[in-house]
Design a protein that fits this description.
165 residues; mainly beta; 7-stranded antiparallel β-sheet; two-stranded antiparallel ribbon; globular
Length: 165
């Protein structure tokens, strides 16, 4: 799922999408808050409201270790910057497009996560006995991921083999 961030003047939109290797977790971004990439240091951050179900350190309980991933994790990250102004497509009435300003893909290693605040939405429902229960169907946090850029991927052939398993 891609996340969108509009700049203050709402003239550009940024889409960020993560891809993990098969059967591995990747961040789900409900709302993209901010991001930064420093290509001279090959580092960056992504701040978002959503979830990323990986552990910050190895869990103590064996059953948690069995099905869990632990930071650092490696992902593909797509960053697409587009013109926010939608333009009509000539010769196709009722069709519109956005102009892509830049599109980059990076192979990254997420090495740190900062929790900023919990953003769970709590609902009240009735159980089978008619008692009210408070339930969170979609647990989320405002969080910031810190990552290293291991490689800029310019073509499908450059995707690291470990991402294809």
């Amino acid at each position: 799922m891609a996340a969108t961030l509009k700049n203050a003047a709402e003239t550009i939109e940024t889409y960020i999408n993560f891809t993990a290797k098969r059967n591995c977790r990747h961040p789900f971004i409900k709302d993209l808050i901010n991001y930064s990439i420093d290509l001279t240091l090959n580092e960056g951050t992504v701040e978002f409201d959503g979830y990323y179900y990986v552990h910050d350190k190895v869990p103590e309980k064996e059953w948690e270790r069995q099905y869990s991933e632990v930071l650092p994790t490696r992902l593909l990250m797509d960053v697409i910057v587009m013109d926010a102004n939608v333009k009509p497509i000539p010769d196709k009435p009722g069709s519109y497009r956005q102009e892509t300003i830049s599109a980059n893909q990076y192979y990254i290693e997420v090495y740190k996560r900062e929790y900023i605040k919990n953003t769970d939405v709590i609902s009240t429902i009735e159980d089978d006995d008619g008692e009210e229960m408070r339930v969170c169907f979609f647990p989320t946090d405002h969080q910031r991921l810190h990552f290293r850029i291991l490689k800029e991927v310019k073509s499908a052939e450059e995707i690291p083999q470990e991402m294809c398993n």
